[in-house]
Write a structure and sequence with these properties.
- The protein is built from 20 helices and 18 strands.
- With 501 residues, it is α/β, with parallel strands linked by helices.
- It folds into 2 domains: 281 residues, Rossmann fold (3-Layer(aba) Sandwich); 192 residues, 3-Layer(aba) Sandwich (Rossmann fold).
Length: 501
């Protein structure tokens, strides 16, 4: 099957979080199953700089909100990455300093919605223009796999063009929906009747996220538990009615992780490679001391906590900031935090690091090398997300025998089994699950983990159970392949108009 994978970021070209990892690992898993998968991204400055070779394949036109844009279709290659990658090159929209979504000061680009409306339209056009390219690049697209709101209008543009190409849409995070107004909608030459609660209109605006739910052939999200949660009023962010109306068209498929990229047996970033068995404790101790070098943290074999993620409210960083002073006063733990995000959280963590320089090491930004070393060298990984569609870091942590402390939500609940007497007995315990999403529950959970840390036999049992979990992508890729081949599903009895507004 020929699959065009459309995304706003992808490792190893550009990555801000888990979406970038998924855009790398899922296509790789599908290719192992025999599919021809190709990736399309915006031509960000960082992607162009990360590419080893760039070839122009053609030039095309798409419409924005007030002007039309000419875009070059580029094909790029990168050493050690053999997937075909195409770029939509519109310099005035994508060739900028900063991240895919924010400027260098961390502020979202004011024209983000138009940037990705245009990207969506270009992806839709690309499914048709492959056959117009020179003979060496001709390709027929069977399915477009779209990801998050940045590609949310791809299914609508396909529908409007009369295309027979199927579209699958995956919700990685329901909290971001891509809204624009009626005047902008009218500039896109989409059918006027689509401005209604039954189609694209959503509480007075057009929603790219809702558009994808309505017009794609199948809608997925990244864990079964999150699929259930967002169909409720509590976590549905006003989309719960739309999602419930989709019926069998909507499902949750748990993300996997790249078992080659995240493998303590041969990870090139870490001091000492290891696997389950006797050497776990000594190897993790060696990795801990290697990690501690270059920090002001004590070079001692004391409990080391790790956190990797965006410094935003969703990730529970406020809870971590709240409990750290008490945790430092009552225990001998240290913590290493890697991430960037909202300035208020960055500033709060900087203050804490200045107050507790021998207990907290803070790295603002992202480093692939440091992320691997934190997973290998930490004893406990903190992931107290308020909500978490799937999460990948807790699965990396399990793979590295770094026991996760998580909130009981979304994919965290699907992947981490709380350590209790019964789960120890049946050998399924793999981490620590908070009872509630608050600071006290996080502190209690960490203290429970620290108490077990002193019981070397039980800690070893937890590590071995965690490291033996099968978190690879093949099972998930097979589930996606079934959706790619599936006939259009029937929706539920209620129309989106009746249940969403």
């Amino acid at each position: 099957m020929n699959i065009l994978f459309a995304c706003s970021e992808a490792f190893p070209f550009i990555k801000t979080g888990g979406l970038g990892d998924v855009a790398y690992a899922l296509p790789e898993a599908l290719k192992k199953l025999g599919d021809d998968v190709r990736l399309v991204l915006p031509a960000y400055r960082g992607v162009l700089e990360a590419s080893d070779k760039i070839v122009e394949l053609g030039e095309f036109m798409v419409k924005g909100f007030s002007v039309s844009y000419s875009f070059r279709l580029l094909q790029v290659t990168k050493k050690s990455y053999d997937t075909d990658v195409y770029l939509i090159d519109i310099p005035e929209l994508y060739d900028r300093a900063g991240s895919p979504y924010c400027d260098e000061a961390g502020e979202p680009w004011m024209d983000n919605t138009e940037r990705f409306v245009v990207f969506s339209q270009a992806v839709s056009l690309l499914t048709q223009c492959f056959t117009e390219l020179e003979s060496g690049n001709k390709w027929t697209v069977d399915v477009v796999h779209c990801n998050d709101w940045q590609t949310g209008l791809v299914p609508a543009f396909l529908k409007a063009s009369g295309s027979s190409v199927k579209s699958i849409f995956t919700i990685h995070n329901l909290a971001y929906d891509g809204l624009f107004n009626y005047e902008s909608f009218m500039q896109l030459d989409l059918p006027k009747e689509w401005w209604s609660g039954e189609f694209i209109e959503f509480y007075g605006s057009a929603s790219m996220l809702k558009s994808a739910m309505i017009f794609s052939n199948s809608v997925t999200t990244v864990s079964p538990n999150y699929a259930h949660e967002i169909c409720t009023e509590k976590l549905g962010l006003r989309f719960d009615g739309v999602l419930r109306s989709l019926g069998d068209k909507f499902s949750g498929i748990l993300n996997g992780i790249d078992l080659d990229e995240w493998n303590p047996q041969n990870d090139p970033y870490i001091q000492q490679n290891y696997s389950t068995g006797k050497q776990v404790a000594s190897s993790k101790r060696a990795n801990k001391f290697a990690l501690l070098k270059g920090t002001k943290l004590p070079q001692e074999d004391k409990p080391l906590l790790g956190f990797i993620g965006r410094l935003v409210e969703q990730k529970g960083i406020a809870l971590i900031c709240e409990i750290l002073p008490e945790l430092f006063k009552a225990t001998n733990v240290s913590i290493i935090i890697l991430g960037s995000g909202q300035s208020n959280y960055e500033n709060e963590l900087k203050k804490l690091a200045k107050t507790w320089p021998e207990r907290l090491h803070l790295h603002i930004g992202y480093s692939e090398s440091l992320a691997h070393r934190i997973e290998a060298g930490s004893d406990i990984f903190l992931m107290p997300s308020k909500f978490e569609p799937c999460g990948l870091n807790q699965m990396y942590s399990l793979r590295y025998g770094t026991l996760p402390v998580v909130n009981n939500t979304g994919g965290l609940a699907d992947t981490v089994v709380n350590a209790t007497l019964s789960t120890f007995k049946n050998n399924t315990a793999s981490g620590f699950v908070m009872k509630n999403s608050d600071a006290n529950s996080l502190l209690v959970c960490i203290n429970t983990a620290l108490e077990l840390y002193t019981d070397k036999a039980r800690w070893k049992q937890l590590q071995n159970t965690a490291m033996k979990k099968n978190s690879g992508w093949i099972k998930s890729a097979k589930a996606y392949r079934k959706l790619y081949a599936k006939k259009p599903a029937k929706t539920g009895k209620n129309s989106p108009e009746k249940v969403s507004q």
